[in-house]
Amino acid sequence: MLKSLSLVTVGATVMALGAITQAEATSIVQPQSASTDMGENFPLVHSIDQSGLSVGYTTGVTDFDTYLSGNPTHTSARGTDWTSLDPTGSVTFDFGNVLNLEGMALWNFSANPSFGVSDFELLASSTGNAGSFMSLGSFNANTQSQPSSAQVFNFNPTAAQFIQMDILSNHGFSRTGIGEVAFKTADVTPEPVPEPMTLFGSATALGFGALVNRKNAKKHKNKDNN
Q1: Mean pLDDT of 169-176
Q2: Secondary element (H or E) of residue 156
Q3: CA dihedral over 11, 13, 15, 19, signed as positive or negative
Q4: Cα dihedral sign for 116, 144, 102, 169?
């Protein structure tokens, strides 16, 4: 009986402390909103609204890899992309809630290739608070002729509501442009890890239960010996 209780205790502890993953589809998603400190010669919203894409998609439904395999292109024209006032700075994409993400598709600005993003870093945060962003890696985007094809930049699966794109350089112009961006959800979703106090409470309760079980078992054993 004591052995069975110990196994239950161990199993409960693992469930409380571990992160369990489950499979899900890798869909393509677009941010709900975006902001920038680089200014807007043409509105930033055009970089996330599918305007200019040769083929659209249903956010959160369409499979990312299947969609990109069809080589959807983007044509840069007025009302279909974003151009900045400054050549470098940050763009922050907000998904409205925490998603598990593992990649970004970028259709670079192509009406004038020198506007296009070159070197950039991606960072992620679940809250958007200052100091909460974690680097996902540094990347380099190629120039694109019109119409542009998507370039995919992969990173480790990360739970985030905000993705920040720090644009470090473009291909030579005094302003920077983006045709369109979209993101890839990860094929595994980590379940939320309990808060520290929850873990402490669970561990304390489990430890107390195990101690009681051991004392009861020892008491019964002594009675049997007598």
Answers
A1: 98
A2: strand 151-167
A3: negative
A4: negative
Contact 82, 44 (CB under 8 A): yes
The CB density around residue 98, as the number of other CB atoms within 10 Å, is: 15
Mean pLDDT of the chain: 82
Beta bridge partners of 167: 89, 120
CA dihedral (136, 32, 144, 87) positive or negative:
negative
N-to-C CA span, the chain: 20
On whether the CB atoms of residues 27 and 100 are closer than 8 A, the answer is no
- Give the Cα separation of 195 and 191 in Å (integer): 12
For 42-60, the pLDDT digits (tens) are: 999 999 999 999 999 999 9
Which uninterrupted H or E stretch holds 199?
helix 196-225
Q: What's the whole-model pTM score?
A: 0.75
Pull the structure tokens for residue 196. 């520290």
Q: Which residue has the tokens 């929850």?
A: 198
Q: Which of 115-119, 145-149, 197-201 has the lowest mean pLDDT?
A: 197-201
Cα-based distances in Å from 51 to 63, 78, 89: 19, 10, 23
Residue 192 has pLDDT above 90, yes or no: no
**CA separation for the pair 202, 211 (Å, rounded):** 14
Rounded-to-integer distance, Cα 169 and Cα 157, Å: 26
d(Cα 55, Cα 53) in Å, to the nearest integer? 5
